[in-house]
Protein 1
Amino acid sequence: MWLTLLLVASGTGQLWQQRDPRLWARLPAPVAGRIQLLADSAVRVRLPAEPLIQKALEGQSKGAPGDRIITAVAALFRALENARSALGPGAVESEITAGAEWLRAGGTAPHLAGLRAAAPNRQLAVAIAMGTDLMTRGWTENDAAAATDRFLTAKATDHDFLILRDRIEQAVRAGGSPKAAVLSEVRRLEAGGNRP
């Protein structure tokens, strides 16, 4: 509700202290103004603003009308808020951004919170991105979260997660099962075997 009120208030011709030149060069002024307001609001509440700018520019490059761009950016703003709430006040920008993508891919906040609980003292952006990638490949959220959680519990590093992504790509190209590739790497880590 408060977000809607802020957007309505933005129509008063208010000037922003720092305009993002990319918005104002590529979007109609009323649309740029509303996106700028959202970006400024993100900065004020310590959320990453760059994903909002990029979402607006992506919409413009695809020829989306202004109202759809504003709606999409506002939805991303809410996802960023929800991701930070799930990941805790200590979450860094890359984690919040990855968490928002998790939510936008169909994931839920409780599973994000569960990943934080599984690894409270490490940076989770790469791990969350890996889980999101699994969901975009058709995995259920439960399966994606469970695989990511098992990797975290097995003390997988960011490098391990990136290697896993490569193994999944190789499996898909060879006509194999992404799930088999994930389970193989999970077993390797849980057995304390050599990391790839």
Note: The chain has a mean pLDDT of 85.
Protein 2
Amino acid sequence: QFRMVKESQLRANAIILWYYDDFDRYAQTAKKLKGAGEYLSLFMDNSRHSKYIKDHLTQHFDDRSNIILRLSHTFTFDYNWTLNDQLNQK
């Protein structure tokens, strides 16, 4: 879901942004974590590239709001709408 765009920016699937509050609330209440970033980082492997993404998530993604994340220069969000296109389904 996360790709490094440049040293200081990650690109994420927009679904992460749309449901950010759910991820953040679950992380803090059910998992007793700092927030969505720390929770999502648990699903990443331990490769060198993933370590950078984990660090970036826990530093810039915890305890935010959708508006702040949209305006942030540390993330960009996109969604591939062709996944929803019924004509592409076979």
Note: The helical segments are 14-18, 20-29, 36-41, 48-60, 66-71.
Protein 3
Amino acid sequence: MNKLPYQVLKRYVSGTATSEEERQVEEWLEKPERPFRQEHILHALWNETQPDVPSSTESRNHTLGRIHHRINLRQSEAAKASRTFHPALGRKESLQILRTLGRIAAVLLIGLLAFNGYEWRAQRVWERNQDELVYHEIHCPLGATSQFVLPDGTKGKLNNGSTLRYPATFRGDAREVELLGEAFFDVVPDKQHPFLINTSGLDVRVLGTRVNVYSYPEEDYQEITLESGAAELVKEAEDGPRTLAAMKPGQHVLYRFGSEAHRKIPRNLEEKELIQLSDQDDMAHVLPGMKPGQLAHLQEGDGDLYLQYTETEAYTGWTDGKLILRNDPMPVLLKRMERWYSVSFRILDDRINEYTFWATFGEENLDQVLKLLSLTGPLSFTKQERKMGPDGVYLPQVIDVRIK
């Protein structure tokens, strides 16, 4: 499998995954064709689960010991299971089990421990697995945006904390790129070579299109907003890719998955006419006739796909330097602000997650935004003193959030 929900990987590493989820993770780790995506997702997992652990030899050795301990436990369990439940297994099969666990451990260790020389090694791994093709990578730091022009003339913009990887020359039947984060694409038309945006969720196939794609690997939802042209949402399956929906200009899709308590919800859900779809054929029949104010919902496996016509600027305004909030829950709002201003929020009262906000910020600095939020809601923000990392660079400032 090429796609793996981020929350499943978190549960696997923490030891809370089900047997089926463990199987999915191990199958995903065994696939080498997406090393860029795998390594970045594992890197994001480290940043989330070990936010306060510095990149030092001591910490890496400590982590290495912990992972070795876990791998040893898994090997012992696997060996015991083979003796207890599969007495017919020979030495060859047993060695295969251990080799599989070893490869899984190696990938996890690479993703978790490769801080120094990370980008260089990722580039080499990717090139080696792409038949000598040369790939370029653009990384946009937190608190900034970056413009790009691809080899076919496609232009766009990369939002804060995002990474885009693309080949030096497009080859084959499709122009494929990989996105981790958020980007706006103004795609050059080419009917013979569709433009395919690979993400950690649904892939987006377009021809000549202006489209915004939001898909950070550490979050359990993604959003696609079509400004003009046409786009198809593609999901990888065991029998190959399949199209879930064909979008029209002005439409917005929210695809959410995972099991987090405060997942992204469709904006103004209570005000919209909900159209419940039963399958993809139903989707193909309903979408062309949808009107503003209607919201189509399709249950897709473990995920939910919502589609509606919308004010596209609410999702593309960042390209003009605007942070637009439209009934967004606080966890979503604070995560966007963390990337926008390169800070880190610490929620100290779970009741905060119940609040939503409407706002548009342009040239306001962080202090002004925090003041406006505290005036419009019962929130209190307390800045902590910035700390310096072991490399001499200051870490993002931590801001505590409380109910007044």
Note: The radius of gyration is 22 Å.
